[in-house]
Design a protein that fits this description.
Strands 1-16-17-15-12-9-10-11 form an eight-stranded mixed β-sheet, sandwiched between helices. Strands 2-3-4-5-6 form a five-stranded mixed β-sheet, with no helix packed on it. Strands 7-8 form a two-stranded antiparallel sheet. The longest helix has 14 residues. The protein folds into two domains: 83 residues, Golgi alpha-mannosidase II (Immunoglobulin-like, Sandwich); 190 residues, Rossmann fold (3-Layer(aba) Sandwich), CATH 3.40.50.150. With 288 residues, it is of the alpha/beta class.
Length: 288
C-alpha cells in the first residue's frame, strides 16, 4: 500500500455513506465511491460542498450544483498544472493517486540521461503525458475519445509545453498497437490505464478481463532495446494485481532484465487514520 500524501491542493475532507467529500483547490465536491460503506461522518463540512454528484435510481447520475462554480479551474501538483471540469459520470478529469506514477515517470526519464520515447495508452486527459513532457521526453498519446484528447491539449497548453514533442491520436488502443508493431516503432516507457469496460472510436468493445492479456503481449513488442518502464494501472476490483504481475512476468521479464512490482494506491483522509483505496499500479522497471 502506498499513501499519496503530498498533493497539497487535493484533500479528502470526509468519507461516509458511499460519498467522499473532496477539496480540489478552492472548491469542494461530494462524489460517490462504492468502497465507502460506513455511515459515520466526522465533519460538518458537507454543507460547504459546491457540487454533489447524485446517483439516479435508474442508473447514472448528475451533478447538483449548490454554490457558484466555474466551468473549469486549474489545480497544481508540484510544478504540474491540470484543468478540471465536472464530467457527466462523476469525474473531474484527474486521478490524484496517480501522482505516484507521475513522479516515477519523471525520475526514470531524468536517470536515463538520453532522449526517451513514451507511449501513453488510454491516456485520458494526459496527466502522465504532461509529466513526461516536463522532462523533455517525446510522447505519443492515444485515447479513443476526441473530447479527452482535446482536454489533454488544454493541459499541455496551461503547462506551457506546446514546444515539446507530443503526438495526439484518437484511436482504438488495440488497433493502434498492432499498427505500431507493423511499423517497427519502439518506446522506452509504456503506460496503460485501461478501463474495466469501454468502447473504441468505432464502437469496438473493450473488456479488461478478456482483452488485457493480449494487449500486454502485443504492447511488450513495442519496447525498445533498452527500455525503462512499463506501467499498468487497474481499477477493476475483481482483477488482482498479482494477475497483472503474472502477465508482466510472462511477456516482459523473459526478454529484459529488471523487476516486476505492484502496490495499491490510497488517498488519506484529513485528520484521520482512514485511507481510500484507489486501485493498483503494476509495473516492470529496469535495474537502475
Amino acid at each position: 500500500m502506498t499513501i499519496i500524501n503530498d498533493f497539497e491542493e487535493y484533500k479528502i475532507l470526509d468519507m461516509a455513506n458511499g460519498q467522499k467529500l473532496e477539496k480540489w483547490g478552492n472548491y469542494i465536491l461530494s462524489r460517490p465511491d462504492p468502497q465507502i460503506i460506513w455511515p459515520e461522518k466526522s465533519t460538518n463540512l458537507w454543507e460547504n460542498a459546491h457540487a454533489i454528484y447524485e446517483r439516479s435510481k435508474t442508473g447514472g447520475g448528475a451533478w447538483n450544483i449548490k454554490k457558484k462554480l466555474p466551468n473549469s479551474w486549474v489545480i497544481n501538483y508540484q510544478d504540474l498544472k491540470f484543468n478540471l471540469k465536472l464530467m457527466g459520470f462523476k469525474h473531474t478529469g484527474l486521478f490524484p493517486e496517480q501522482a505516484y506514477n507521475w513522479n516515477l515517470i519523471r525520475q526514470k526519464i531524468k536517470q536515463a540521461n538520453r532522449q526517451v520515447k513514451v507511449l501513453n495508452l488510454f491516456a485520458y486527459t494526459g496527466a502522465a503525458s504532461i509529466a513526461a513532457l516536463k522532462e523533455g521526453a517525446q510522447v505519443v498519446h492515444v485515447d479513443s475519445s476526441r473530447g479527452m484528447i482535446d482536454w489533454a491539449k488544454e493541459n499541455v497548453k496551461i503547462n506551457n509545453l506546446e514546444q515539446e514533442e507530443i503526438h495526439f491520436l484518437v484511436d482504438d488502443v488495440r488497433k493502434f498497437v498492432k499498427r505500431e508493431i507493423r511499423r517497427g516503432n519502439k518506446y522506452d516507457i509504456i503506460i496503460m490505464d485501461p478501463p474495466s469496460f469501454g468502447r473504441g472510436s468505432k464502437n469496438e468493445v473493450w473488456n479488461i478481463e478478456n482483452d488485457l492479456a493480449s494487449l500486454i503481449s502485443d504492447t511488450s513488442l513495442l519496447l525498445s532495446d533498452n527500455p525503462l518502464l512499463f506501467i499498468v494501472n487497474s481499477y477493476t476490483t475483481g482483477l488482482s494485481q498479482i494477475v497483472i504481475e503474472n502477465l508482466l512476468n510472462i511477456y516482459i521479464m523473459p526478454k529484459y532484465q529488471g523487476k516486476v512490482m505492484s502496490t495499491e494506491l490510497v488517498l488519506p483522509m484529513e485528520n484521520s487514520s482512514l485511507v481510500l483505496p484507489c486501485g493498483s499500479t503494476i509495473r516492470w522497471e529496469n535495474n537502475f
